[in-house]
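#structure-requests
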Amino acid sequence: MQRSEAGNLAALIVEMRPEPGPVAGGPATGVDGKQVFDTMVQGGPMAGRPSDTTPKTKRRSAKGPETRMRLLVAAGEEFADRGYRDATVRDICRRAHANIAAVNYHFGDKATLYHQALEYAALDSAQRYPVPAVENESQPREQMRQFVSMYLERMLDEGRPPWQGKLMFRELIEPSGLMDGLAERYLKPQFERLERVIRHVVGNGPDAVSVRRAAYAVVGQCMFYKHARTAISRLTPTIPLDAEGRRVLAEAVTDFSMAGLESLRGGAPRAGSAG
């Protein structure tokens, strides 16, 4: 994504979200919210914002930020439902109550619209659910619980627009080529943070591949409750996934993960771990 495109996108998030979530910050997240908005947006985080004296008719025109945001959200929903190949600009405009010319004006083409919808989903998630900063490395269980809690909120919080997680998952299974950049900016800092916690528990015995596999195992538990949510509700309806249920689940996943990590402490890597 070009700098000007990313800047416009970040400005829109500031502009259009009435109650922004917590902003990710610090080296643990890799996505400093203030830096994102101050650095990415040319002229500052509110660049392009219509002034209070702007006539309402102009604010609501096809060239205004409201139309741009409607298109961005409608595109995210359409791409999440149908995928990039099958989604059409016409259907996106129908969802957004906008005309095709507005897509050309704000984004240029379908590919750029998809890129920005995907970037928006990743950036919004990083804002809403920041990776917890390191406060006390002598308490690895609490660090693990905080990380698991954050990840479960990203997966299960119904306050997040459902298309965002669905679009990100679709990009994972049907990659468009954007995942490399997103992984570098958003996923890599998360895994590095988690691996630090794991390494603190297991010591220097296990090799890097074993630690990475352990990190995948922790994240995999969280993702299971997202992607198997319907099956879980039928097989075990007594496991709630509301706010309190997520809190209890975070404790359970943390306990299970810590027990598994203890088995790796000081041990030699398993056969085949180098592959």
